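for the recovery benchmark. tokens below, seq after
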């Protein structure tokens, strides 16, 4: 995977502020809709902290976007997604590494590659799945995915189609990283 672009934090901060202001929302309005503290949003917009995956998913959902859609708007995008140009983002809390393989506002399918470090756990709220459907294929390692309380133990090559929106936990309970591809479509 390529290195993380130095200005990713700036682009995310600028995009959050732009999305919020375009809707005429105050920090308090966005905080309420996203269930994220006003102080956290303010720090992200001022680039005083890097958001976690969970925080970005909550913010994206408040805007009616997927995480990929929000990051795409922050990074821009072309029809041809060259490997060297695919945006990469790392969750500062878990080390979760996310590569946006393909996403465009005018195309219904997005592809994302994720590397989850050993022992890492990412919890995402049901609201992040309200406007999308997705399929996950594990490329390497092992992954435990808990969807709405149901535990799935996924091995390399296995594929899981997500059900109705539910809280989801991605957990790597092994000593090796795991890597998976997510294909999603907006509803």
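predicted aa per position
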């Amino acid at each position: 995977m390529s290195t993380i672009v130095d200005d990713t934090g700036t682009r995310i901060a600028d995009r959050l502020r732009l999305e919020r202001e375009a809707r005429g929302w105050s920090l308090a309005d966005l905080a309420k809709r996203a269930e994220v503290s006003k102080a956290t949003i303010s720090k992200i917009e001022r680039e005083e902290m890097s958001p976690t995956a969970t925080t970005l998913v909550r913010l994206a959902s408040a805007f009616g976007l997927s995480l990929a859609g929000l990051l795409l708007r922050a990074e821009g995008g072309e029809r041809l997604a060259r490997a060297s140009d695919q945006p990469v983002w790392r969750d500062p809390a878990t080390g979760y590494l996310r590569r946006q393989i393909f996403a465009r506002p005018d195309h219904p399918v997005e592809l994302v590659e994720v590397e989850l470090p050993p022992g890492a756990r990412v919890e995402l709220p049901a609201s992040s799945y309200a406007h999308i459907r997705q399929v996950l294929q594990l490329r390497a390692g092992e992954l435990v995915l808990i969807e709405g309380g149901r535990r799935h133990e996924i091995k390399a090559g296995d594929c899981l189609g997500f059900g109705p929106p539910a809280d989801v936990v991605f957990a790597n309970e092994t000593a090796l990283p795991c890597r998976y591809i997510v294909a999603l479509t907006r509803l």
